[in-house]
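Structure tokens please, single chain.
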Amino acid sequence: MRKVVLAILSHPDDAEMMCAGTLSLLKKQGWEIHIATMAPGDKGTAEYNREEISVIRKEEARNAAKLLGGTYHCLEFEDVYILYDRESINKTAALIRRIQPSLVFTSSPTDYMIDHEMTSMIVQTACFSCGIKNLEISEKPFDPVPYLYYCDAMEGKDKLGNPLPPAMYVDISTEISIKAEMLGCHKSQRNWLLKHHKVDEYILAMKRFAEERGTEINVDYAEGFRQHLGHGYPQENVLVDILGSLVTIK
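Here you go.
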């Protein structure tokens, strides 16, 4: 197995919110870290124009990834208009083929924002397509299909407020400091979240949710995941093999 992991989510700071602790644990196990976003976060501002905030947020994302010795990639789609279409699937599949990860994390199939749900669908198809010869992209196909895991939905609930419990938890108690440091790189988001979401202290909000997940398995902090187990995808829970007792199955 190539020790390469790709977390591909919608916007800068999504990975830091939902899976950075697990990425840090993988880094300690010798894994190469890649973090990608579908969009540069061009709508996530109350003070800059699209071009200005895109530059700022991509630099923040690069700085966060560097804390894990990782690489940041942006597919340059547009916030709010992430679509399940040919271009999105091809560009995402091309990125996966270039990186050739064994393990992929992406957004929850059900979440508060359509961008996240579209990203989840696109990544699912792109992973499945990594070995399809006749996909019309220049990057060479590879096998096998990567292990695919869905992160928690924001606040662990669907758009109707129903709980979306994880199928597994990763104990990130030892990684909460680096997770907070990575999220802290996204300084532009503090004012935006305060104005649009009425949320201040976004690092504390992240810690509260990680603590909530932690209490569900009697540890200090945890991140929750579900594995894609459809036909054609790997069926073993490779996170257990890699992280051992730090993974709790529900």
